[in-house]
Amino acid sequence: MKLKGITDVFFDLDHTLWDFDKNSALTFEKIFKINDISVNLTEFLIHYEPINLKYWKLYREEKIEKSALRFNRLNDAFLAIDYEVEPALIYKLSDDYITHLTTFNHLFENTFEILDYLKVKYNLHIITNGFDEIQHKKLKQSNIHQYFKTVTNSEMVGVKKPNPKIFNFALEQANTNMDKSLMIGDSYEADILGAKNIGMDVVFFDVNNMTLDANIKRIDNLIQLKNYL
């Protein structure tokens, strides 16, 4: 069913448009080679990915600082595979990861197709919890920056999704209101509940088939947004 009255569409970036897991895996492959780290990449990622999500949740909840997130997610992953790495090298790997992450810019299937379709009828925007220094690089180097009228990140606002302040800040930047706006994202807690809590309509990008509420609109491919917009 097509939604009525929507003028502004807000997207999350990582895991929604920008294929974070694929780009992150390629980055680790690159920086491990640079730093002579001899680990099985698949085994490392099996441990790293849930550890990373755990620390992002703590970061989102204001329980840890960015520096702790960046160090601990790597340190814990190496401990999990019983591979000893000195703290100094952990810090270097953390810096190298940020440096090289935006050299890979795979997007989810149909990203360009859906953005081309939507830009004709809607104002498009980004709301992201990602680090300021790399989110703009991701947008530019993946060649999707030109689609978005505004980009709001958590470091600009001082709070992270699902805090209502970041959504209200984004609406103000976009010169619109919640009744005319739609949020699309992959995080049920940060994107979907966060936007719903201030009265925004939502579409859950549910690639892992983890729908928790049958009443929430969901897609598992971006092109399915045509069903609603």
Automatic annotation (TrEMBL):
InterPro entries: HAD-like_sf, HAD-SF_hydro_IA, HAD-SF_hydro_IA_YjjG/PynA, HAD_2, HAD_sf, PGP-like_dom2, Pyrimidine_5'-ntase_YjjG
Signal peptide extent: none
Domain of life: Bacteria
Annotated PANTHER family: PTHR47478, PYRIMIDINE 5'-NUCLEOTIDASE YJJG
NCBIfam families in the cross-refs: HAD-SF-IA-v1, YjjG_YfnB
Protein name: YjjG family noncanonical pyrimidine nucleotidase
Highest classification ranks of the organism: Bacteria, Pseudomonadati, Bacteroidota, Flavobacteriia, Flavobacteriales
